[in-house]
From TrEMBL:
Gene giving rise to this polypeptide: dtymk
Protein name per UniProt: Thymidylate kinase
Organism: Heterostelium pallidum (strain ATCC 26659 / Pp 5 / PN500) (Cellular slime mold)
Keywords assigned: ATP-binding, Kinase, Nucleotide biosynthesis, Nucleotide-binding, Transferase
Enzyme Commission code(s) on record: 2.7.4.9
Pfam family name, one: Thymidylate_kin
An annotated Gene Ontology molecular function: dTMP kinase activity
Keyword Nucleotide-binding among record annotations: yes
A GO CC annotation given for this chain: cytosol
Class of the enzyme per the UniProt entry, highest EC level: transferase
Pathway connected to this protein: Pyrimidine metabolism; dTTP biosynthesis
Family: Belongs to the thymidylate kinase family.
Gene3D superfamilies assigned: P-loop containing nucleotide triphosphate hydrolases
Amino acid sequence: TETTEMKRGIFILFEGADRVGKSTQVQSLFGHLSTTLGLPTKQLRFPDRTTQTGTIINSYLQNSTQLDDRALHLLFSANRWESKDTLLKHLNEGNSLVVDRYSYSGVAYSAAKGIDFDWCFGCEKGLPAPDLIFYLKMDTEDATKRGDYGNERYEKVDFQKKIKEVYESKLVNSSWNVINANRPIEEVSKEINEIVDRSIKNGIQNKPIQCI
Ligand code: NYM
Ligand code: MG
């Protein structure tokens, strides 16, 4: 029987431009946490296209709705704010979260359009912050060669280069884990799993949940 005291969950985030392999790594880490380590874990992604704001966002991304860039930015942000309580509830009940995109995507994509960086970031302040961030880094040209590229809005080489530039010059800092994503899937997963295992060993869950 379990006698260990319950710990809060860990909030792990994957960020990066399109087609760098985030969803694959999210799934792989989910398997590592839930199956290998036996931790209760949930997999989430933003935008959450199932909510009302998500429906508008989805139709914008599929090119069937036009929207002002700032209005769109606020919708993406609202899409996170509306899940704030759920995120906190999961973490406090001991569920770890593996999340595909979050606030930094919101800032990177909007700032890449030319919207003021601080204005973009301001909307995110107060949201629960991730404990660990993995930035999957890959040359834009390599990412654009991947399957299904170009089906959604934003999947254009020049724009992807701008997004990468915002991430790498203004968002990624020394607390982020920058992962060379231009390698076989298993090699990337192995590096990520090792970082997560080490962080758990070092008591990442013992500090309170931070805010952005
Ligand atoms: N995206 C995602 C934004 O522009 N702002 C945001 O806040 C978020 C979370 O939506 N091209 C963009 C990035 C992607 C697109 O995400 C949909 P995905 O992970 O490619 O399905
Ligand atoms: Mg995409």
